[in-house]
Amino acid sequence: MDTNSKFKVQSEHKKIQAKFIHNHGQKPSLIQVTSPMISSTLFHAYPLLLLIDNLLANIMWLSDDKCLTFIYLASVWLTINVFIPNETEVNHILPYAKILRLWIGIISGAFLFLSFMYYIVSLISSLEDTEPPTLDEIVVLLESVLGKLEVLKNELNVWKKLKLSINGVSEKCSNKRLFCRLFLLGTISQIFIMRYISVGAYVRFFIIAGLVYHSTSVQATLRLLWRFTPVRNFYHLGFKSFTTSNWLPNRLNMEQIISLSQEEAITVPLVDVLPRLLQDREGEDHIRILQLLLNEQKDNFDNQDLKILEIEVQENQRKWHRSKNWSTQLLPYERQNFSIEIKDTDGSFIMKSCLSTKELGEEDLPDNWRWINDDWDETDWVYSDSVWKEIGQYSSSECFTRSRRWTRRLFHL
């Protein structure tokens, strides 16, 4: 065979030869990027992670066998009755009630203990008979445990919930309001409850309530109750009187807005501003300032300062039920149809209800205050969920609220 034929055969062989690309677009395995010490620790902690995950699944009612979770709940109830007896029990009617309750409590406690030990023994036995878990499986289990713990942490963080404001804004409430909540919820209400029920019933109620909180029935009931507006009002305005005057807050007018927002105004010397106002500004809003100043016949501007203030009003709407139309009717405790953020005495920003932009534009301004813009400038709608958490610029099935901002500038000389 000559050289040309050999070269032709080799070139044809190269054309049909398969070429494999390794690790193209794939992430490296966890075993390659994890140190041996961490891998060994996770491997030895795998049985404990399984135990904790199963315990959390039963507490949060995520187990497939709901009947077994209910049996555990009943056993816990019977067991705690031994350690937390009912002081109001009439012993002369049931003379053997204490003995019966003690016997049932001991049996229930023994059942819980033996069930726990049986699960540990069966878990160890199954791990010995099956293949060792991979590092990816251990990490997935660890993420499951951390996710459940995060849910429980957020639900038990009562302090964070107390510090949230009740006006629909995710800002911290004032110290005065926080003190009122702690005083009423932590002192007055507790004394009132303890006066009519015993300590044992009080403790039992909270233990059982915590164990059944994540059950399907309780969660469905809470969601049904949350649909009622009076329930929401009681949750957010529990320590306020439910009167019409409180539900319809006083709407700020233009004079009040200017008085509360003067700290945000920008003060500049008029001599420094005038050259920039005149330079290539014809037909724009800035030339209006100069025209108004000239109309007042002010010749000497050396010692004059110009105070410029931008008013930003927020328009809010809510969508009710399955209607596609947006409504100006909002919940009493949240932000209203037109609102503005005002700086409180403690430095935090609170949402106050105000007049509509049309009504604010028609009002007479205080002395020496004049509008710069002829009209309000509006932005596009921003869509949010039911608690005003922003989702995006477009409406979807998850959007129940929306808001947009109206801005307009004025000046004071």
From TrEMBL:
Keywords from the named record: Membrane, Peroxisome, Transmembrane, Transmembrane helix
Transmembrane feature ranges: 37-56, 68-84, 99-121
GO cellular component, one term: peroxisomal membrane
Coiled coil: none
Subcellular localization, as worded in the UniProt entry: Peroxisome membrane
Domain Peroxin/Ferlin: 306-379, 380-413
Membrane topology, record value: Multi-pass membrane protein
Gene Ontology biological process terms from the UniProt entry: peroxisome organization
InterPro entries: Peroxin/Ferlin, Peroxisomal_PEX28-32, TECPR1-like_DysF
SMART domains listed in its UniProt record: DysFC, DysFN
Protein name: Peroxin/Ferlin domain-containing protein
Species of the source: Saccharomyces mikatae IFO 1815
